[in-house]
Specification:
Layout lengths: L22 H15 L1 H11 L4 H28 L5 H11 L14 H25 L3 H32 L3 H13 L4 H11 L8 H12 L5 H14 L7 H18 L6
Length: 272
Amino acid sequence: MVAENWTIEGIDWGRFDPSKVDPDILLLVKAASLVEYNGGDYATYLSNVFSDDESFCDAAELWAGEEVKHGEALGRWAQMADPDFDFQASFKRFREGFHLHLQAEESIRGSRSGELVARCMVEIGTSSYYSSLAEAAQEPVLKEICQHIAADELRHYKLFYTHLKRYLEKERIGRLRRFLIAASRFKETEDDELSYAFYAANSPEGSDYDRRYYNRAYINRAFRYYSRKQFKRGMAMMWKAAGLNPQSRLVDVAGYGLHLFARWRAKQVLPA
C-alpha cells in the first residue's frame, strides 16, 4: 500500500530479490537517485525566485526534503542491486559536473507563474516516469519505492498547481504563453541534467562526458518503459496547467503522438 508519509526505514528491504533486478532499469535508477538527491539545490533556486513569499518557500523546503528522500531510497536500492555502485561518490561526481543557476533572483521562465507551470511539468514527467517504472519493475522493493515516489510527485504537481492558480490572479499570463512554457519544459527532458546524471552514475571513473552518447543512452532506456496510458494522463495534466481543457480530444491525439515518438526514440541506435 502506498502511504503519503512513508519512510525509508518503513520499506521492507528484506524483500529485495536480486534475481529480479533488470539491468537496464538499474542503470536508470542509479541516474534518477542523483537527480532526486539534488533537490536541495532546486529549493535554493525557488526560494530565491519567490523570496518574499514565505508560504511558498516553506512548501518548497518540504518538497525538497521529499525529493532528497527519493534519492536516498533509490540510491540505497541501487547499492543493494549493485554493490560496486558508490552512491555518494557518484553524487559528488554529478555535482562537480552539473550546476544549477543558484544565484538567480528571477525565474528563467520570465514570471513566477511561468516558473510554476514549469514545475508542474517536471512533476508530470516524474509521476509518469515512476509509475511506468513501478509497472515494469519485477523486483518487489523497487516496485514499492517507485509507487511511493510516483504518488509523491502527483501530490507535488497539485502543490505547484495550487500556487500557480494564486499567481495567475496577479500576473495573468495567457494560455498560449503557459502552453509554450510547458512544451519547452517537456523538451528539456533531453537536457544535460539527466544525461550527466546517467554518465556520473554509470560510466567508468576517468571517462569523458559525451553529451550525445549519454543522452541517447538514457533516452533509449527511459522511453521504452512509458505506456500510452501514462502519456495520456500526463498530457491531460499538462493541458490543465496551461489553462486548457484536459478532457479535449486533442489530449488523446497528443498523448498517442508522444507515445509513438517515445517508442521511436527508444529504438534509436546509440552513436559510436
